Description:
This protein has helices at 4-39, 43-68, 73-95, 103-123.
Amino acid sequence: xxxxxxxxxxxxxVVKALLAAYILTAFCLVILAFLLLKLDLSEANVNVGIIxxxxxxxxxxxxILGKTMEKRKFIWGMALGAVYFLIVLVISTIAFQGNxxxxxxxxxxxxxxxxxxMAGGMVS
Length: 124
């Protein structure tokens, strides 16, 4: 039973960091929606805002997770970015009822999420 306790603690740490990342995501997307409403942003500007949201959210999650882990903080940050991306991908697939139209954007988003999480883990 002593062996399962550290595993459960690590899972809880990952869930807490993911929760913080998704709270920041929601906050950033609300700000982006408000800016879109008030400033009539172009599609390119909205895309940049979404990319910045992914980076900031994964960075924050990786930073928080890196602070709670003892070793290999950057790997934990990368793992958080990957899990963050997978959850976003599943939700997007369900919302749009099918496969993503451009796999290059999916791959780029995956790398952005993992890189942001890794950077957060490295800084922590």
